[in-house]
């Protein structure tokens, strides 16, 4: 099954099968955004779904925030509930064909939606989307799942091996501020473009 197929994700939204959506901006990303002084950064949130992190970032002054998703349904819903967010910053595209250059990319449940065979391609694409010294910041699952994904999990050793080929690993550690259902199952990470 192609997990990056638009029809697959559209069907998930139509059926309400969106267990990854916690209904609000993720605490680790909220706290990370809150400590950033430069609100002029160009920010991308790939696979951002209902866009809780995008809404939060925009509300906090990150006016150059872009929300990208393969499925149109969540972007339409987001636009209706966030009329102040520029429509031109809502990108209904395939991440792997998207073109742009960003200072910061926020990772929240996108990486885990990709089959592990796509992780190298993810890194290669992220590298092209980041400005020199740009950062990817977010959370990853630090556990393997028993059922076939998505979501697909992993472990810190495999992540470090993968990401170190493309980025400087600034931080990769157990996430101390995960939401309760994910506590002990997430890593907070920060990668910088080499």
UniProtKB/TrEMBL annotation:
<dbReference type="Pfam" id="PF05724">
    <property type="entry name" value="TPMT"/>
</dbReference>
<keyword id="KW-0808">Transferase</keyword>
<keyword id="KW-0949">S-adenosyl-L-methionine</keyword>
<dbReference type="InterPro" id="IPR008854">
    <property type="entry name" value="TPMT"/>
</dbReference>
<keyword id="KW-0489">Methyltransferase</keyword>
<dbReference type="GO" id="GO:0008757">
    <property type="term" value="F:S-adenosylmethionine-dependent methyltransferase activity"/>
</dbReference>
<keyword id="KW-0597">Phosphoprotein</keyword>
<dbReference type="InterPro" id="IPR029063">
    <property type="entry name" value="SAM-dependent_MTases_sf"/>
</dbReference>
<dbReference type="GO" id="GO:0032259">
    <property type="term" value="P:methylation"/>
</dbReference>
<protein>
    <submittedName>
        <fullName>SAM-dependent methyltransferase</fullName>
    </submittedName>
</protein>
């Amino acid at each position: 099954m192609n997990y990056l197929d638009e029809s697959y994700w559209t069907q998930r939204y139509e059926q309400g099968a969106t267990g990854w959506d916690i209904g609000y901006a993720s605490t680790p990303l909220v706290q990370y955004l809150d400590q950033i002084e430069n609100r002029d950064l160009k920010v991308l949130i790939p696979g951002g779904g209902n866009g809780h992190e995008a809404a939060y970032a925009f509300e906090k002054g990150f006016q150059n925030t872009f929300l990208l998703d393969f499925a149109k349904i969540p972007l339409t819903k987001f636009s209706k509930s966030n009329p102040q967010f520029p429509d031109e910053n809502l990108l209904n595209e395939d991440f792997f064909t998207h073109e742009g250059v960003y200072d910061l990319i926020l990772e929240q449940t996108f990486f885990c939606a990709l089959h592990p065979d796509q992780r190298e391609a993810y890194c290669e694409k992220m590298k092209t989307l980041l400005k020199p010294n740009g950062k990817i910041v977010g959370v990853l699952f630090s556990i393997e799942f028993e059922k076939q994904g998505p979501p697909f999990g992993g472990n810190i050793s495999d992540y470090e091996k993968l990401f170190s080929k493309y980025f400087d690993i600034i931080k990769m550690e157990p996430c101390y501020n995960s939401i309760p259902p994910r506590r002990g199952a997430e890593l907070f990470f920060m990668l910088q473009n080499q």
